[in-house]
Amino acid sequence: MLRLFQGLGIAIIAIVFEGLLFLYLNSSDASSLAQFGSGGAPAPHTAMPHPRPAAAVRVPVPAGLETPEAVQAGAHLFRENCVSCHGAPGIAPAAQGMNPAPPNLLLAGRRNDPAEVFPKVKNGIPGTAMPAWSDQLPDQNIWSLAAFLHHSRGIQADAFEALSTTEADASPEGH
């Protein structure tokens, strides 16, 4: 009889441990309930948490990425697609209330490593409002954005205005 209770105790402990482990690994499901209003819809401008932080994904950077044409094409794409959330020198972001807030990508102290920027733009960033752009932009355009963000850290408002208002062709044929 004692062995039966010991076996039952061990089984209960194992089940409780597995349940706690399940809750810990899937904590985003439980914590995301606070993000929902009474109607079951996500709160506006609130990023849904991701179970685990995504590891920094690095991809091979194309040779000769930061050509003047690619940087200019990236500046134009940034103005058209990114400024509303991230802002730019002399341009405040229009989107407000996002949690977490989109970073200012053109600050002088940022790294903006193209090998890290490319997958973030292409695939989005889980747990934030950053969407995946792979359906809207071809890889070549995403590389142009990465080139611009790396090359233009600390750019001044007048230089950003001049660079981003002129459309450039970043294709190999355009060189």
Model description:
This protein has 175 residues and is mainly α. It has seven helices and no strands. Helix 3 (68-81) packs across helix 6 and helix 5 (114-123) packs across helix 6 (139-151). It is elongated. The termini are far apart.
How is the secondary structure organized here?
Blueprint: H1 2-25, H2 27-31, H3 68-81, H4 83-86, H5 114-123, H6 139-151, H7 157-164
What is shown here, in short?
By secondary structure, the protein is mostly helical. The chain contains seven helices and no strands.
Low-confidence stretches: 19-54
Major β-sheet profile: none
User: Which structural class do the helices and strands define?
Assistant: mainly alpha
Order of helices and strands: HHHHHHH
